[in-house]
Every structure is written in structure tokens, then in C-alpha cells.
Design goal:
- The protein is an alpha/beta fold and 410 residues long.
- 40% of the residues lie in helices and 10% in strands.
- The chain is built from 17 helices and nine strands.
- The chain is globular.
- It starts with 17 loop residues before the first helix and ends in a 22-residue tail after the last helix.
- The N terminus and C terminus are likely disordered.
């Protein structure tokens, strides 16, 4: 956070624990973390967020199979710089050998490799990765253990919670036992997405933090700098990770107010130094200008951003937006702020039992249970609600022909 703000420091004792040695000595005890985001946590955006207080950044999620086989995919999706540290590279995968070979290609250019065990999107379900490995613990254990046994850098994991706190804690302990050095917990279930996103459960994250011996990052419900402080206090975690909030306001961790035009210009300046593909730039501009583009006085710029074919054209559009803001005397009106679009506010939080047995360090550990309550179950009530839910009215805009993004939600 900015120096003029009060920060919350999580108490951490230096021990022989390899997770905390890695967290303190290699990562330099970060509390403010930029999340891995497909096509969005690319190098220029990471550097912009570091300027505004991000202390650790993740690469975009990388598909291990494509990364291993396709050199063009590697060149497009993994770029870094000596100043881009500390850095964790994240992969999704469902095959231990493929994951290992892909991770070996980046282990000398990052500080750790993260396994994505939390992506809830339909593409992850079709590809059998992310949060859809939650019920395949033996495979997950093989993914983690294989990397731990063969990589030269630590292995971390990012997960979503189960609706049941006990199951979530067991899963976290299982990952630790397999060798995970640091765990990020997104406090939503894999069913909480889209219009059903709702609130993340900090209580689930707190239960995990109290039950493992490795560093834990909290993820979810971070809309502004006050939320960062509140999350650190509520979860007792070692750091807070933000994803979507950072897209709308890259200065979120600093607590300072920056105009949307000024921030867009800063991002484009980063792009000049660290070039990136046009679709990523376009996506960031839609996020930064989200509120502004809803205003009829600026609506014409939406189409310009959506159809621009190169950085020069996008830069020209941003300059015209800046001139129009100045002409209207609205610089103080259009500042970076997180856009809250989640319609449903369901809370999965439950009373947390923190009296768990000691953590196991047995890498062969596989919890065995026949308790059906340990399995994430979508109730009929939720299914019916989802099928009957009427989406909030949204304006329709033409799809971008180059990248396929719909500007209304880019």
C-alpha cells in the first residue's frame, strides 16, 4: 500500500519450513499480488501493476500441452524481463509428464511454477484441468509431486474452495503433503461463476490458513485498497491476490486515485517498452474505460477500440478520449475504480471449526472417506435458480472481428 496508508502486516515466523523460506527469501514476503489471468496478466500490465504496488506477479495461465508443442504460443504468452521479478509462471495441465516438460522451459526465467487447480470455466471442464480436477486427488497429487521432484524452483498451487469447509481444509493439507510450497485460495466454489459468482468466503480461507504450515494467499472480494486491509485481517493470510479488480484499477494496491486516461497512457507507454499482442491491449482498454464507455458522450470510442488493428490506432483513440475528457472538464469524474457487476450475492460462509488434527507431511497421503458431505454438490435449488434467472439488461455491441472479444464484457 502507499506509504501514507496504514498497512496490515501478517505475523510470520522464520522457520526451517521450506515454504516460508521461499516466501521470505526469494519472494521477499509479498502481501500484494497480481493474479494470473489469461491474456491479461502479460508483461506490460505486470510492470504497470508493479509501479503501483504489486509485489509479486503471475504470468497468464499457460496451457502446458500447447506451451510444450507450439513455439508461437510460447512466444506470444510467455515474455519476461529482469525487472519482472519476483515472478511465478502458472500452468494448467492434467498430465504430469507434459506439465513437467513445459515447466522446465520456464524454470530458469521465473521464481516458481504454479499449478492452476482453480479455473472454473467451461473450457477447463472440457479440457479436464483447473477446478475440474478437484475430485481427482490422485492425479492432482501426481502433478504436484512430479514437479516438486524434478524442478529447480518451488511449486505452488491455486485452488477454489469446496462448499464444505472440512473438505477444503483436507484438500489444502493434501497439497501441502505432496510438496506444495505456497497455496493461493480463491474463496469461491467452482460453481460460483458468471451471474452466480457471488461473494467469496474469507472464512474458508481462514480455515485453510490455520490448518497448514505453508504460506497462504487469499483471493476474492478485493474491490479497493480497504478490502486488501480487511482481507488480511479477516483471513490472517500472508498476502492478498487480486485479479479482476486490478484490471479496472491497476493502482488498487497503492490506494491512490488515477484517471482512466492517465492510466491508459501509462499502460501504452509500457507496451512501447514491452510489446504485446493487440488483443491484450484492447482488453485492458475496455476494462480501464468501462464506466466511461457507458456514457453516451463517449460511446463512439467503443467501436474504435473494438476494431483497431494495431497499437498506433489504439493510441490515437486513447488520445482522443483524453482530449474529450479535458474538453468537458471531467478529469476528476473518470478515475480508475473497480466495476462491480456480480448480480447475485450468495455467501457460502459457514461457521468454521478450527480444531483440526496435525498436518501430515507424508507425500503418499491420500485421505479416504465415504462421507458424501465431502463432495461438492449442486443442490436442486441452485440449479432451478440458475435456469430461471433473468440476466440483467445489457447493451449489445458488435464483436471485435480480430480477437473475438465482445466489447461489452471485455
Amino acid at each position: 500500500m502507499a506509504s501514507n496508508q496504514t498497512t496490515t502486516t501478517t505475523t510470520t515466523t522464520t522457520t526451517t519450513n521450506s515454504g516460508y523460506t521461499f516466501y521470505q527469501q526469494t519472494l521477499k514476503s509479498p502481501q500484494y499480488i497480481l493474479a494470473p489471468m489469461v491474456d491479461q496478466s502479460e508483461l506490460p500490465f505486470r510492470m504497470l501493476c508493479r509501479r503501483y504496488g504489486a509485489q509479486l506477479c503471475y504470468t497468464p495461465m499457460l496451457h502446458a500441452g500447447m506451451f510444450l508443442k507450439d513455439k508461437n504460443y510460447r512466444a506470444k504468452n510467455f515474455t519476461t524481463h529482469p525487472l519482472d521479478r519476483p515472478l511465478i509462471a502458472q500452468f494448467c495441465a492434467n498430465d504430469p509428464h507434459t506439465l513437467l516438460e513445459a515447466a522446465r522451459l520456464v524454470q530458469d526465467r521465473c521464481d516458481a511454477v504454479d499449478i492452476n487447480l482453480g479455473c472454473p470455466q467451461s473450457i477447463a471442464k472440457k479440457g479436464n484441468y483447473g477446478a475440474f480436477l478437484q475430485d481427482k486427488w490422485e492425479l492432482v497429487g501426481q502433478l504436484v509431486a512430479t514437479l516438486c521432484d524434478h524442478l529447480s524452483v518451488p511449486v505452488t498451487c491455486k485452488i477454489r474452495v469446496f462448499s464444505d469447509v472440512r473438505r477444503t481444509v483436507e484438500y489444502a493439507r493434501f497439497l501441502e503433503a505432496k510438496g506444495c510450497n505456497l497455496l493461493t485460495v480463491h474463496g469461491r466454489t467452482r460453481d460460483q461463476k458468471g451471474v452466480l459468482t457471488g461473494k467469496a468466503s474469507w472464512e474458508h480461507i481462514l480455515a485453510v490458513k490455520r490448518s497448514v504450515h505453508i504460506p497462504v494467499f487469499a483471493n476474492g472480494n478485493i474491490l479497493n485498497s480497504d478490502d486488501v486491509i480487511a482481507c488480511l485481517e479477516a483471513t490472517a493470510t500472508d498476502g492478498v491476490m487480486s485479479a479482476e479488480g486490478m484490471l479496472y484499477n491497476p493502482a488498487l494496491f497503492s490506494g491512490v486515485c488515477v484517471g482512466v486516461y492517465e492510466m491508459a497512457r501509462e499502460y501504452l507507454d509500457m507496451v512501447d517498452v514491452y510489446p504485446v499482442h493487440t488483443s491484450a491491449i484492447r482488453g485492458h482498454l475496455f476494462k480501464l474505460f468501462h464506466d466511461l464507455l457507458q456514457d453516451p458522450n463517449f460511446a463512439e470510442f467503443r467501436q474504435e477500440i473494438g476494431t483497431a488493428s494495431d497499437v498506433k490506432k489504439l493510441t490515437g483513440t486513447v488520445e482522443r478520449i483524453g482530449s474529450e475528457i479535458e474538453r468537458r472538464g471531467e478529469r476528476e469524474k473518470w478515475i480508475c475504480r473497480t466495476y462491480l457487476h456480480h448480480v447475485i450475492k450468495e455467501d457460502i460462509s459457514t461457521k468454521v471449526n478450527t480444531n483440526y488434527p496435525p498436518v501430515t507431511t507424508d507425500k503418499n497421503y491420500l485421505p479416504v472417506t465415504t462421507d458424501k458431505n465431502y463432495l461438492p454438490v449442486t443442490t436442486n435449488k441452485t440449479e432451478n435458480f440458475s435456469s430461471n434467472f433473468k440476466k440483467a439488461r445489457t447493451e449489445l455491441y458488435e464483436l471485435c472481428l480480430e480477437c473475438g472479444f465482445n466489447p461489452k464484457c471485455a
